[in-house]
Fold:
Amino acid sequence: MLTFNSRTAVVTGAGRGIGRAIAETLARNGVTVVCVSKSPESCGAAAAAITAAGGKAKALAVDVADGQAIAQACTALLAEFPVIDILVNNAGITRDGLLFRMSEADWSDVLATNLTSCFHWTKLLARPMTRARWGRIVNIASVSGILGNAGQANYSAAKAGMIGLTKTLAREFASRSVTVNAVAPGFIRTDMTAEFVGNPEVSAKILEAVPLKRFGEANDIANMAAYLCSEEAGYVTGQVFTVDGGMAM
Ligand code: NAP
Structure:
């Protein structure tokens, strides 16, 4: 059993996949969850499912690649909730391609969505956490940000950037009991990886590099993220937890 003391969380990218599993896990533990996604349908469905299961949730459609949209969302949230106790920066996209074929738009879209978004959300929501002397920030990075991955120069740079941001903010916020950690998933079965997982040849090749010989599920990441958001993880900060079936060991 994890302890949460009726906290409030923002989970970005909560409409589908890993973010939705994190939102549902937190909500099952009594956390009020603001489900953020790009499309109103996606976060709306996630929040409705949580509410139908007896949890507390709110949907908020925000394009996290747009700093002004994040600022508006945070102003509205902080008018409604005195403090957002937990922030999970999970929204992310891929625009894969070898460097020589990668357009500048593919580079900047991935950096804006996956990395600069974390700067904006954290800058706006962490101040009330520091005043309250309690907070949890969890950044969903990737093993690509640790090992690198051919074809993902933009994505692995963004995810490595999230890891640097995590370690620095852990140091900046530690004196206020606000912890900052990252989770680095390996290959998890979601819409993002459906193309690879659904292709027997490609998936067999990928699983050669996974000691546990299976793809991860969104709940494998949600369980780690929930622990890092809980009361029990109060002495854990500045760390990167790989949840990858042993890929990056
Ligand atoms: P997914 O199934 O593709 O879902 C992505 C979520 O992010 C969706 O809810 C989507 O919103 C949201 N999103 C994307 N761009 C956005 C934007 N500009 N503004 C707001 N929301 C946006 O992805 P996933 O596999 O769950 O991945 C979640 C995170 O884990 C990502 O950061 C990803 O890089 C990371 N990760 C995944 C894997 C994996 O194997 N799946 C491995 C390592 C790391 P809509 O629903 O509205 O489209």
Summary: The domain at 8-191+218-242 is CATH 3.40.50.720 (Rossmann fold). The pocket of NAP is lined by residues 12-13, 15-19, 37-39, 42, 62-65, 90-93, 113-114, 140, 142, 185, 187-188, 190-193 (CB under 6 Å).
